[in-house]
Amino acid sequence: MATMLEVSGLYHRYGGGENAHLAVNDLTFTVETGQLACIVGPSGCGKSTMLRCISGLIKPSGGEVSLHGDRVDGVPKDLAVVFQDYSRSLFPWLTVRQNVEFPLRWHGIGKDERRERAQEALEWVNLPNVANKYPWQLSGGMQQRVSIARALARRPALLLMDEPFASVDAQTRFELEDLLRKVQSAHGSTILLVTHDIDESVYLGDRVLVLSKSPATIVADLTVDLPAERDQITTRESAEFVSLRAEVARLLQSGAKTPAEVGGS
Ligand SMILES: Nc1ncnc2c1ncn2[C@@H]1O[C@H](COP(=O)(O)OP(=O)(O)OP(=O)(O)O)[C@@H](O)[C@H]1O
User: Does the interface ipTM go beyond 0.90?
Assistant: First the structure.
């Protein structure tokens, strides 16, 4: 498998002098093409900072990020991001179709192709009949599916997802998780998804990277050896799932301590 994303020695410090705050520290990992990698870490550990550095939204204080071998320096054209808060990421005055087409227009894609790609992406997320509605006419789960369609319509080399299902109810969350795995396997998408939910990281991921508390550093990189076809009831009941979930929980608990705390305990 070819490497899609390479993160090497990444660190980022906000501010300077006495007010400096080290948010991520020496992150090194890769994501292979076609992989769905989950990153799980405690609240405030630096997950969003890491994603901002990977997406080129902020310049890291040090280290390197490469996408298919090209060093990231600014937001790459073939990278898309889905955020947690769908209500703030969709434009309420544009229809669903116009929202999905918006970034394509910005990237100079012609009208016919924009229309075709938007319709196709809406079909991928099981929303073929809402193109002319406005986001506020849809449920929260449907709005998040529109955000996912908008990202997929770009046909990104890498899709970054920042806690994408944290703002929907439990049942919708399960539906969206299954939809994401289905779309990812049908289209071979490469996805890096950040979550603070241990169960979600194991259920969704081909791999789970576990972060320490702030400043974030990687404490483990686990392969999820579950069948590709997953089911919200039987997979979550399986011995493999239960054992992996416990391992991630243990790692988060021990890795969530700073070296000073470990030494002092
Ligand atoms: N622009 C900023 N300036 C200064 N400090 C910041 C800035 N953004 C984040 N931080 C600090 O960096 C640390 C990591 O924040 P970040 O938002 O990356 O963590 P997170 O793991 O995504 O948090 P959460 O789980 O709550 O979403 C926090 O202590 C935060 O206060």
Answer: yes
